[in-house]
Structure formats: structure tokens, C-alpha cells
Amino acid sequence: MKNLFLILFIIPLISFAQESGIQFEHGTNWENVKAKAKTENKHIFVDCFTTWCGPCKYMSANIFPQAKVGEFFNANFVNLKLQMDQTKADSEDVKSWYDEATRFGKDYSVRAYPTFLIFNPDGELVHRIVGGGEADQFIAKAKEGLDPETQYMTVLKKFEANPTDAAIAKQTAKTARGAYDQELATKAMERYIDLISTEALLTTENIDFLLQGATSTKSVAFKILLDNKAKVDELFVGQQGSVDDVLATVIVREKVFPALRAQNAVVDFEVFEADLKKEFPAVELKASLALVKAQYYSGKKNWTAFKDAVEEYLNLSTKEITPSMLNSFAWSIFENCDDAACVKAALAWSKKSLESGDNAVMLDTYANLLYKSGDKETAIATQEKALALASEKEKETYRATLEKMKVGQPTWN
Predict the structure, then answer these.
(1) pLDDT digits (tens, 9 = 90+) for 164-189
(2) Interatomic CA distance for residues 341 and 348, integer angstroms
(3) Residue after which a domain boundary falls, among 314, 337, 366
């Protein structure tokens, strides 16, 4: 009887927990989903996900179960999860949607994950969202899918019907970026630029719009930024780095990354820099190339060259180097390089990461580097500070490191 009472007590709690988040349809098909939406006069929300997608898993585990998310989506949508890949572990319910998932991918251009599609009560696609977000942000994005003024398809129709309206072109470019429709975003951006003067374009209001539109060296936005660097830099005040950083990032991504991705690639960065300087003489590329070099040499396990590249980047970059970035560079050296010059450089980076205040993770890095450099006494004192600031989850690891330091054992592999 006691066990029965316990079971009866738990069941309502389980039901309550299940109902607190988004309620997704199961054991159904697309026609039934559309029929239910029409009957209840609700829109349809479709989560197009894959089993291997990290952001998809994050949304399912952390955002969809939240009470406020469930309250909004359950009130406004018939909700469906649609698995876009196929695995051996798939249930019969998932398998029954294989053909429909293939059709969704083709008909609705689902090319990135997660993609969220919103259909009106008649089953017509009206909006798309690509990429997740935290609860409030995600609810705000979904609300745009309910408002005819902000719906993706509505904006697209306005754009097609009003070829001389600059405001609509600008709104379309923004909406298309959010929908991961780069082709439409580029088309709308180019139309907007054609419809207004360069002087009107180069304003504080438009600077972010232009920067986001500079997706390739061939884009109109990139050319405008390049041809008006001095003016853009005036508008860039208060932002991280300079317009050179933006232009250089586009150039490096387009011209350098493909070579780095080639199997067994051996890259001569001096040749790269010389060639790019001929093509883009007005852009300062050294800092961006230095960061790419650091990534490249890290992959090649050439830690001396990695150290030199990081030093070059830190000396050249106009961006603020974050403590976490410095810590990451320093930890890479600690884990992988025994060279005294490398350790000395990493110690300096690590020390600088602590200038904004003590942090357990960064103190741990600094302590380990001190220990590796031979300064055992200071290392132990620093590790004790890290241990005192560490979260409960970190304490065991930090305590083990401290014990190794005290008995003279290596803290690295």
C-alpha cells in the first residue's frame, strides 16, 4: 500500500514536469498537425534538428523545458519536432517522418541546424529562425513569426512588390540574415545601397548594417567600407578594433582558410601576406594573419612557432584581448611545451589575464606555469588562492594539482 501511495503521489508530479515546457506532437503526421492547427486557430512551430547538432541539444535540454517557454509556445502553436538526419537508433515514430523531413529540407531550404519554421493556421510557411538562443530572446524571435509585419514571408513579399523602397530593402536584408537566407540578404543589401547615396549610407545608424553585409570581398558593402575607411573608422568609435579588423577577417576567411583546410597543408604565411597586400594594399592584415598563424601552428603542434605567432598577434591587435583569450593561449603552452622561452612567454600572458581581478581558472593556469618554470613556492601559494575561489565542481581537481606541487610531481602530462 505504501508503494502504491508513493506511485500515486509521484505521477502527478511527473505530469506537471512534462507540462511545464513545450508540448510537442507525437504519433501523428503532417496532415493531422495542419488540421489541428486550423481547428485550434494556432500557428505551427517546427523544430528542424539533427541528433549530432550541439545547439539543437542545448535548446531541447535547457530552453524548451522552461515553464515560460512552454506557456508561450503551447498557447500560440501546435509544436512539432522533426529529425532531419537518420540513425540506427531511430524509433518507429521518427522513421515515419523520414520522407517528410527530406521534403522539408528541400521545399523550405533547411541547410543549417537548428532551423525553426513557423506556419500559419492554413499550413503556409510564414517565418523561419536559424540558430537558438536563451529563453526570452527565443520567445521574442518567435513573436516575430506571429506578427504579419515582421514575418519572413511577409517581408519577402513586400520586398518583391516594392523595388524602389529603400526602407523595405533594408528591413528585408536584416530579416533574411536572421533567416539564414544569404542570397536574399545580399540582394536586399545591394538594392538598398543602389537606392541611397553613399553619404546617406555612411551614418552611425547604418554602420552595423554595412559591417554585417560585408560577407565577402566581392560584396558591395565590403567595397564601400574599403573605399571609405577613414569615414567608417570615425563611425566605428566605441566598437571593438577598427574597420581594418572587419575587412581583414573577411579577406582571411575567404583567401586563407581554404588553404589551411587542405589536407597536409604546408602554408607559407610570408607568401600569403605578400600576395594579399598586392590585392588589398589599403588593409592592414598582419594582426589577423598572426592569429590565423597561431591556430595553424597549434594544429601542427609547433609550439615555438605558436608562441611567436601569439606574441605577434598581441603586439599588433587593435582589439582588446580578453582575459579568457590570454588564458587559453597560456594553457596551450603549459599543456604542450617544455621550452623555457615558451613557458616564460605564457607566464606573461597568464599574469596579464589576472590584471582585471582574481579568477580561479586563470589563477590555476598561472600557478601551473609558475610550477613548470621552477618557482614552486609561488606556484603553491597561487594554487591555494585558486582552490579557495574554485567552485565545488573544480575543487577536487585543483586540490589534486596542489598536492602534486607540494610533493614535487609534474602537474602536466
Answers:
(1) 999 999 989 988 887 888 889 989 99
(2) 11
(3) 314
Reported as a single tens digit per residue, the pLDDT across 136-159 is 999 999 999 999 888 999 889 999
In a domain, 96, yes or no: yes
Q: Is 42 helix (H, G, I), strand (E, B) or coil?
A: coil
Q: Which of 314, 334, 365 is the last residue of a domain?
A: 314
What's the grid cell of residue 295?
591556430
CA angle 48, 49, 53 (to 5 degrees): 150
DSSP letter for 62, please: I
CA 64 to chain centre: 19
Q: How many CB atoms lie within 10 A of CB 156?
A: 18
Report the C-alpha dihedral over residues 141, 144, 146, 147, rounded to 10 degrees.
Answer: 170
Q: Cα 251 vs. chain centroid, distance in angstroms?
A: 20
Clarify whether residues 135 and 26 are in a common domain. yes
SS3 248: helix
The three cell numbers of residue 98 are 523520414
pTM of this prediction exceeds 0.85: no
Joined grid coordinates for residue 373: 618554470
Count other Cβ atoms within 10 Å, centred on residue 115. 24
Q: Are strands 125-130 and 77-83 parallel, antiparallel or unpaired?
A: unpaired
Read off the amino acid at residue 312: E
Residue partners of 260: CB distance under 8 A and separation at least 6? 267, 292, 295, 296
For residue 166, tell me if it sits in a domain: no
Distance CA 285, CA 389 (A): 40
In a domain, 199, yes or no: no
Element of type H or E holding 165: none
CA distances from residue 126 to 122, 246, 375, 382 in whole angstroms, order as listed:
10, 33, 64, 57
Q: Which domain holds residue 302?
A: 217-314
